[in-house]
Amino acid sequence: MENIYIFSTEVMWSGSPACKIEVPERLTVSHTALQEEGLAERCVSVPIRQATDAEILLAHSEEYLEAVKKTPHMSLDELRTFTQQYGDVYFHPNIYHCAKLAIGATLQLVDSVMTGKVRNGMALVRPPGHHSQRSAANGFCVFNNVAIAAHYAKKQYDIKRVLIVDWDVHHGQGVQFAFEDDPSVLYFSWHRYEHQGFWPNLRESDYDSVGKEKGSGFNINVPWNKVGMENSDYLSVFFHVLLPIAYEFSPDLVFVCAGFDSAIGDPEGHMCATPDIFAHLTHLLKSLAGGKLCAVLEGGYNLTSLAQSVCQTVQTLLGDPAPQTSELNGPCESALESIQCVRSAHKPYWIRNGLALVPDVSVAMLCAAQHARMSLTNRYTPFMTFDLDQCVCVCVPPQGCSDVAGLMQAVLCLLLPLAYEYDPGLVLLARGPGSGVGKAAWAQITSLLQGLAQGHTLGEEEAVGTTAASLLGDPAPSLGPLGAPLPEDMEAMERLRQRLQTHWGLLQNAGEQMITASKETYSVTQMDNNILEN
Ligand code: Q6M
Ligand code: ZN
After folding, report:
1. How many angstroms separate the CA atoms of 205 and 214, rounded?
2. Cα angle value 160/163/165 (rounded, 5°)
3. Which GO-annotated molecular functions does the record name (predicted)?
4. Of 293, 428, 468, 508, which residue is the least packed, with the fewest Cβ within 10 Å?
C-alpha cells in the first residue's frame, strides 16, 4: 500500500483584483521543495477532478453556488462589486474553476484513503476553504473544501466520527459554523485571536464556543491571545487539550486543515513555531483513526517556511521519523491561560479532572520520575525508559493496568509531555509479563513514542509482534471510544502531575495565577455582554 497522494490545483490570479499573499507561487514552491527533497517521487500523484454541483451543495446553498457560477463571465467591475459583499476575498475570472478543482482534489484524496489505496495523503490546493460559509465567500476561500469532504466521507463511507484539526493560524469559522450542532464531527482550531483583536475578530472564535445543542462539546477553540507562540505551546495544546479529547472521541477519519501560516516567519501569523513541529503534529495525529489522515492545504504565506513545513508534513506521512525536538519547555503564560480556559470550558464534556492509571501506578511513576534512575530490574515492571546512561523510567507495577482510558490519559498528559521535554536519545520499550497493558494500547504507546529520539526505539518484550508491527510503521489500531477513567485514579494522577510540573514545564495545564486570570477574563466578557445588551 502506497502512503500518499498529492494533488495540485491550477495556478490562478495573475490579474487584478489580486491578492498580495495568496499567490500561485505557494503551490509551485511547495511542489519544487518536495521534488528537491526526493519526497515527490516517493508519493503517488493522482489526477484531480472537478467537484460536481451536488458535492458543492453538501456544504453550500444553491443561491450561493449559482452566484459564484456567474463570476467567470463578469467584467472586472462586476467582479469587484461581487467581491465587496464578502470579507477579505478576491474573485478572479478563473477562481470558480480552481475552487471546483480544489474540492475535487480533496475528494479524490478521501476516496483514496477510504478505499485503502493509500494510507494517508495531502492535497496541495488553492483556493483554501476553511473560512467559506454556506452562502458566503470569506478570507481567500470560495468553497469549504474540508467541510464538503467531511460531509462526503460520512455519506459515501460508513463513517460515524470525523475529526477536523485546523492548525492554520486563522480560525476556520466556516468549518465551525458547518458542524456546530453536529456531534459526529469534532472540530478543533487554534488561532491568533488577541482577545478578538485579530481577523476575523469574531466573538465565536473564543474558547467558550464549545458547540451547540447535540454538538455541545464537539467544537474546540484555542485562542492565542499573544503572538510569538513556540513549539512548546503547540505541543502543550496537543498533549493537554486535543489528544485526550481526540482519543476519547475515537475518530474513523482525520482531516487536517493544514495551514502553515502558524509557522515562524509568516506575515499573517507572527508565530515562532518551527517547520519541524509539523512533523510532530502529523506524527501524533497519525495514531488516530488507524492512520487514516487527509491533510488539505489552507494558508501559509512565507514561501520559505511554507515549503519547509509542507515537506515536514509529507515526510512524516510517508513514515520517516520526526526530527529531534530540542529546547522544549513549558508553555508561555498566555498559552497556559488559554489551555486552562479551554480545559475548563470543556470539562463538562470531556476533560477528566486529572489523569490516572491505578493508585499504585502513580506511586510508581512518582518514584520513577523523582529519582530518575530506576533500573530495569527494580521491583516495578517498567513499561518504558528513556536514554541509556541517564534513564528516566516510567513504570507499571506487576499487578498491572487494565483500565485503558486511564492508561491513555496517563500516556497523553503525563508520559508524552515528560518524554518530549526530556528529549531522549533512545527510547527503550519493555512490556513485562503481567503488565496488563493490552496489545492495542501497547501499539498506541509504541507508535506515539516514536516521535521521540528521531524514532530510535528499541522494543523488548515477550510478545514481539505488536511492537515490531508498530516499529515497522503499521498504524496503531484504534482503541474505540474511551470511557471515563476511575475517579480515584484521576485524583491520584492529578496530584502526581501537580507535583512533577515544577520540574517539567510541559506537564503544566493550569496554575493558581491562571485561574485568577481566567476569572478576570470572564468578568470582562460579562461586562461586554452587558454593554451590548443595554
Ligand atoms: C487578511 C488581512 C490582511 C486560509 C487562511 C486565509 C487567511 C485570510 C486572511 C485575511 N485577512 N492583513 O486562513 O490563511
Ligand atoms: Zn490562515
Report:
1. 19
2. 170
3. deacetylase activity; hydrolase activity
4. 468
Q: Residue 162 class from Cβ within 10 Å (0-12 exposed, 13-18 middle, 19+ buried)?
A: buried
Residue nearest to atom 6 of ligand 1 (CA): 139
Phi, psi for residue 505 in degrees, rounded to 5: -60, -35
Give, in degrees to the nearest 5, the angle at Cα 318 between 418 and 229: 45
Among protein residues, the one with the nearest Cα to ligand 1's atom 1 is 88
Is residue 346 flagged as an active site residue? no
Grouped pLDDT means (10 residues each) for the chain, 534 residues: 72 64 94 96 92 98 98 93 93 93 97 96 97 98 98 96 98 98 98 98 98 98 98 97 96 98 98 98 97 98 98 97 91 97 94 41 42 35 36 47 80 90 85 78 89 82 63 83 81 84 90 40 30 28
Residue 269 dihedral angles phi and psi, to the nearest 5°: -80, -40
Give SS3 for 293: strand
Residues with CB under 6 A from ligand 1: 88, 128, 131, 139-140, 168, 170, 199, 259, 261, 298-299
Alpha-carbon span 70 to 400, nearest angstrom: 65
Contact 219, 180 (CB under 8 A): yes
Q: Is-contact 451 280, C-beta < 8 A?
A: yes
Could you tell me if residue 480 is left (phi over 0), alpha (psi between -120 and 50 degrees) or otherwise beta? left
Ligand closest to CA 198: 1
**One-character DSSP codes across 253-274:** EEEEEE--TTBTT-TTT---B-
| pTM of the complete model | 0.87
Q: Say what angle helices 95-114 and 62-69 make with each other, to 10 degrees.
A: 130
Q: How far apart are CA 294 and CA 121, in angstroms?
A: 5
